[in-house]
Amino acid sequence: MRTTSLTIALLAGIVALGGTMARAQDKSSSPSGSQGSTTDLAAFYSTEQGQITPSGAGSFWMQGASIDGAMTFHRGFGFALNLTGEHASRIAPGVGLNEVDFAVGPRYTFRFKSNSKHESRVFGEALVGGARGMSSVFPKSTGLDTHASSFLYQVGGGWDIAITKHIAIRAVEADYVRSYLPNNGGDTQGRIRLGFGVVYHSQKTQ
User: Fold this and answer.
1) Which residue, among 72, 156, 154, 69, has the nearest Cα to 109 in the 3D structure?
2) If you average pLDDT over residues 108-129, what whole number do you get?
3) Ranges of each domain in the chain
4) Where does the chain show beta strands of DSSP type E?
5) Which CATH class is domain 2-204?
6) Distance between the two ends of the chain, CA-based, in angstroms?
7) How many Cβ atoms sit within 10 Å of the Cβ of residue 123?
8) Alpha carbon distance 1, 187 (integer Å)
9) Spatial CB neighbours of 8, under 8 Å, sequence gap ≥ 6
10) Which of 4, 105, 173, 205 could covalently link to 36 via disulfide, CB atoms 3.0 to 4.6 Å apart?
């Protein structure tokens, strides 16, 4: 229930932020940057609250880093990929967890003029990929294992604030992440991943 509430709040926040930026864009008379393809490469700190079982038992925090790349082709539509590695030193007595996630999929980016002369960006995305858990304990039909893999999807978005023509601050990225690593509790994990960092931006005008 708590995860569902957080997911609804996340999506509502992204919609509200997009609406605010859309009104700001309507007030801007400059259409510069509205055409041409763009490429973004981001590196940022990430953290998320994990749970050993979907009921919320065994709550713990993971921390790590993400590398995020995206290409936008036409009217804000494009694709993105994300690679995230995180670590928790203790998810149970004497047990830690390392996890690496990779996902790729479509992204929509809305560009708008900020207080500076450079464009800032709000984006939303839906990615699919895989999760790899390591250096932990995963119950399987054959017994306990120290590693496991599963399908993963993540839905969310973020806000990049332009500092210069090519550099932006990722003020926030928030994603709902769902994976299916074995845990003797339905073999599902749903959590909110938060992150912030820096972005390199390039644009090819038509």
Assistant:
1) 72
2) 87
3) 2-204
4) 37-51, 59-74, 77-92, 95-113, 119-134, 138-140, 143-145, 148-162, 167-179, 189-204
5) mainly beta
6) 48
7) 23
8) 17
9) none
10) 205
For residue 37 the two structure tokens come to 């393809």
Q: Taken in order 127, 130, 132, 133, is the CA torsion positive or negative?
A: positive
pLDDT digits (tens, 9 = 90+) for 41-70: 999 999 998 876 665 556 889 999 999 999
Tell me the C-alpha distance between 66 and 103, whole Å: 11
DSSP 1: -
Mean pLDDT of the chain: 83
pLDDT at 25 over 90: no
Above 70 in pLDDT, residue 12? Answer: no
Q: Average pLDDT of 93-122?
A: 89
Band (pLDDT 50/70/90 cuts) for residue 1 is very low
d(CA 105, CA 91): 30
Number of alpha carbons in the 13 Å side-chain half-sphere of residue 119: 21
Alpha-carbon separation of residue 156 from 36, 108, 113, 137 (angstroms): 24, 11, 22, 29
Whole-angstrom distance, CA of residue 52 vs CA of residue 45: 23
CA distance 122 to 15: 10
